[in-house]
# Entry
Amino acid sequence: MSALSPRLASELAQSAYVFVKPGTGLLNTQGFGTRYTQQFFSFENKVMGKTGGYFINKETGFSAMGIGKGKHEGDAIITIRGTHLPSLADWGTNLQLALHTADNNQPVHGGFQRAFSSLKPQFQQFLNQWQTNNSTGTVHCVGHSLGGALATLTADWISSRYTKNVNLYTFGAPRVGQLGFALKNTTKVPNNYRCTHGADLVPKVPLWPFFHSPYKGFEYRLDRSQGLSMEAHGMSPLEGGNPGYLVSANCEDWSSLQRKSNEYLQPVRLKYENRNQASYSDYWSERLSAALITLLRETGYYAAVAVQATISAGATFYDLVARTLETIAKTATKAADQVKGLLGHMLAFAGSAVTLVADLTYHTIRAIFNKMLKRLYAGVREALKWVHKQ
Amino acid sequence: MLSMFKKAVDVEVFPAVSGSIVLHGKPMAGLKLRRGYLYLNVTEEGVWDETVTDDKGQFSFSDIVIQSKHPTHAFSTNIIQQVIQIYDDNYPEYKEVYLWSTNSTGIKQNSFFIERLSQLHCDLSDDVIYHQIIDEQYKGAIRFEIDSICRWPSLEALEAEKREKYGEL
# Structure
């Protein structure tokens, strides 16, 4: 079984944005995808028992399903575009809210799971037909942005229900679930080509306790961009993306791309006096998460908070973390210094003009969390708007 | 909600078109053509206009810029299908002849399309072929695909060089 090349995967992800309802297009050639993708996958195949091919075009998402040829003979492709997810109307702290149970029984973001569920019946129809045709190849799941989140849930489900030969390719996808999901997903979908740009905001959210899969694995870091920017999330430079995943993934071989280890796993302790070093960047978004985890671990609260996170996310979850930090700060001076250090860095990350941490009460801590979340999600909202415009 | 109050922006759906049609080198006068665009997720169906070739077989269309709020919406895609074809009841044999058939991405027209559409010359004895254009700015990652009966020999020579450099796909 062979993986899609980076170029093929990115062109298929982009093609999901260029879909025209069969029969309504004007062009001379009506096939789904580009001349290049059409060499490997066809989507209008009558062999699949459905004239017009398998396309889903819903409020919650779009997907094109096709079958492989040539080098990918026997394979199936599912390319997904996330569209308007109602629960994401506010990508603010609400994004952390509303957990649902995924098909692998682990907590994931509710909006993603609902969107996936609405697409699932048609995936089922397609995959049943694919299996009936005695196809024993690989199922490739591809998506950009929210489509990447949906592709992750799809690949996970396929691995349980259909075949272990399932590959996942995502570009600028957010975190889908919490630790339990990430762990299971890592085992079930080992061939996970997770592509990011350094400055792409969307893969930075939702924050801890959401994790990327592969857990403790690596991602393909397709550029060296710094800071956090809207343009870094785009697929195509023609739509304002910089560099655009189509451009940065323009190669035939995964081994020629740079790999970066997934999450900050070593302990991080932040000194209050160094707080103004923090900036609005990928590096600091990861370090702040790592510092919070380190603090909770070293004071023995990690397990309790993490367990609580699986049942209450969002605003209530940050209430809990703020209360826990208040308690921690009261118990020991050293721990209090670390709490203060973390909060000062959060203020600097949020771009606050004043980074002084007045006190370590629940109210102050909660307000600082809000500032940080607001800054991060404001950027994400802008990035998502930016995806397809100049 | 705020997007309701956002201003519409200019979307360049078609550059100005000018060209000529001959058959075995002889001008085709009085031939009816139609041009259409479909702005994905914005126009439900194609928007068309027509023209007729003059005595020398020449024709033109002016450029089209529309106003749309669509590009200001989150998750909006700006893909525009563009078509120019012969559309003349007197010549049913040329019904499938496309002078232009492609997707345009973004709200601005690229220089490659502008250049080719300003010299849309064809001989009806030729076949519709697939033309690929590489935007060198992106090192071969961005390739435009056009189906057309027209030929642009000097521009195609440049494309052949680029394909040599960035590889055939």
Notes: Confidence is low (pLDDT under 50) at residues 85-96 of chain A. The radius of gyration of chain A is 22 Å. Residues 272-382 of chain A form one domain.
